[in-house]
Design brief:
This protein is of the alpha+beta class. The protein is built from 12 helices and 10 strands.
Length: 298
């Protein structure tokens, strides 16, 4: 889909093959009325964030290669950008709507509250919240704007309502038992650096890099980066790097025909032996055995 696709109904492009017709705002925000075909696909991974609203049925999805998440009728599934998603079970009566939003649009809409989203997604790993009636209200309102022929302020109206919708999700995240703002002692500057670290890590093609590599890119010392990561997320930067590298390992082993050596080279390991040892230490199995048990593309 090209940048010439402005506001209005759009047919799916190559990136979203299999999706139902969508409504797009400048290739930053996409509203999908029915994601049934997409959740039946073998896997899904995108540089966009996704919020799935399960209107009917039930889904069981594997997140990140090793965590199963269940979403039921009336619930929202929140999928951060570049997260490997593997549908495990899809009920026959499934009906799912979706909001797909780029990282830049998400940051623009949420502002400083992006910290709540990042903390929930990456630190607490909260992927499901109750949608209740406010989700239906948002979807109906969005449709009315596009279908009602508003031509002058419809983008501003949608983006304003989108902020309210995302803030409501953030409120739901804060209210969960797994997350509280009270236990966060980091300041806004530290949160901003941590968010930049997550973005840098997600965009890096060869993520298997030392902490100093990311610290230098952020113009801070490795010690400072380590302190910030621990204070904001409770995890060292090495842990974040390892988890992100393993997601790439799972993706390439499952969904490509690349050899183990080729995968090792692509991920930045010095040789396939080191890669095999690294993978075994993190997953408890060998790359070849994992591929045999989980491969989706021959």
């Amino acid at each position: 889909m090209t940048s010439s696709a402005a506001l209005g109904h759009q047919e799916t492009g190559e990136k979203y093959s299999g999706f139902a017709p969508i409504i797009a705002i400048e290739n930053e925000v996409f509203f999908l009325d029915n994601l049934q075909d997409a959740v039946k696909a073998s896997n899904y991974r995108s540089e966009y964030n996704a919020i799935l609203h399960c209107r009917e049925g039930r889904l069981i999805i594997e997140m990140g290669g090793n965590q199963q998440v269940v979403v039921k009728k009336g619930q929202l599934m929140l999928i951060p950008a570049n997260k490997l998603v593997q549908p495990m079970m899809v009920s026959t009566d499934i009906e799912v709507g979706a909001l797909i939003i780029s990282d830049s649009a998400l940051k623009s809409v949420l502002g400083s509250e992006i910290n709540i989203w990042n903390r929930a997604m990456y630190t607490k790993q909260i992927y499901v919240v109750d949608g209740q009636q406010w989700t239906y209200g948002f979807e109906n309102y969005t449709k009315s704007i596009f279908d009602g022929g508003m031509l002058h302020l419809h983008k501003q109206l949608v983006m304003a309502f989108l902020r309210a919708y995302l803030l409501t999700i953030c409120e739901a995240l804060i209210r969960t038992e797994k997350m509280s703002l009270c236990d966060d002692s980091s300041n806004l500057r530290e949160k901003a650096i941590f968010n930049d670290f997550l973005e840098l890590l997600s965009q890096q093609k060869q993520k298997h890099q030392p902490v100093c590599y990311y610290a230098n890119a952020l113009c801070i010392t490795p010690k400072h980066l380590s302190t910030i990561c621990r204070r904001v997320s409770g995890k060292a930067p090495t842990k974040w790097i390892t988890e992100s590298v393993m997601e790439d390992c799972y993706t390439l082993l499952r969904n490509t025909s690349l050899s183990i050596k080729e995968i090792s080279n692509r991920l930045g390991f010095p040789n396939s032996s080191f890669f095999g040892q690294y993978f075994r230490e993190q997953s408890g199995t060998t790359p070849l055995k994992y591929r045999t048990e989980h491969r989706t593309i021959i």
